[in-house]
Amino acid sequence: MDLSLLETLNADRDARRAAILVTDLETGAQRLVRQGDDLADDPLGEDLKKRFRSAKSGIVEDAAGKAQFLTVSVPPPRLVVIGAVHISQALVPMAEVAGFDVTVIDPRTAFATPERFPERVLKPDWPQDVLKAAPLDGYTALAALTHDPKIDDYPIQAALEAGCFYVGALGSRKTHGKRLDRLKEAGVADTVLSRIQAPIGLDIGAASPAEIAVAVLGAVIAALRKEAETR
C-alpha cells in the first residue's frame, strides 16, 4: 500500500471517519474514497454506497469487468445514553452484547454511580463537557432519557448537528412538543427536528424499563442497518 494512503486511512480511523480503500486486483492501483465524497460519477458509486452501509469488505467488478477489492473501514457504532436511569441499566448490557460502544452521561451523582453502571461506560458529568472531549458523529446513536431539559436538550441538539444516525428522546407527545419549541428557539430547523424519534423506541407496547430498553435498542439497530439505506 502507498504510505501516504495508509497514513490517511489511519488518520480517518482515529478521527472516526468512514473510508474505503479501492484496490485494482489486476494492476494494484489504489485510491481512497471517504464517506461524503461525491460518488455520482464514480464507476463504483453504488457498490461503494452499499459497502459504507454494510461495513463489509469484498470484491466487486467495475463497468469494464475488472475486479476491485474494497477494504471498508468504518467506525464502530456508538450509543450515547443521556441519563443514568433504570432504562439505561437494562439498555447498557444489551447494547454492548449487540456490539455498540456505550457511554452513559449524567451529572446527577445520585444516579451516576459505579454501583449502578460499569465505570468503563459511566461519565458522571454534564453532557456539554463530556461531548467536548468525545464529539458525536454519524456513527453514533443518541438516546436522551432523563426527562430534564437542562440535561437532555444540549446533547439532542448536538446530535442533530453532528448527523447522528439515530436521535431519540423519552417523553410524552406533550413533553416532546415543548422540547421542539425550545429547540426551535435555539435555531434548529423543523426539517432537522423531524429526525428526533419521540416517544423513543419501536412501538412494541413496552411498559417496564427493560421492555423500553429493548424498544430503544431495536430502533437504534433499525436506524443503523435498515433506515441507513435511505440516507
TrEMBL record:
<dbReference type="InterPro" id="IPR052698">
    <property type="entry name" value="MoCofactor_Util/Proc"/>
</dbReference>
<dbReference type="InterPro" id="IPR027051">
    <property type="entry name" value="XdhC_Rossmann_dom"/>
</dbReference>
<dbReference type="Pfam" id="PF13478">
    <property type="entry name" value="XdhC_C"/>
</dbReference>
<protein>
    <submittedName>
        <fullName>XdhC family protein</fullName>
    </submittedName>
</protein>
<feature type="domain" description="XdhC Rossmann">
    <location>
        <begin position="79"/>
        <end position="218"/>
    </location>
</feature>
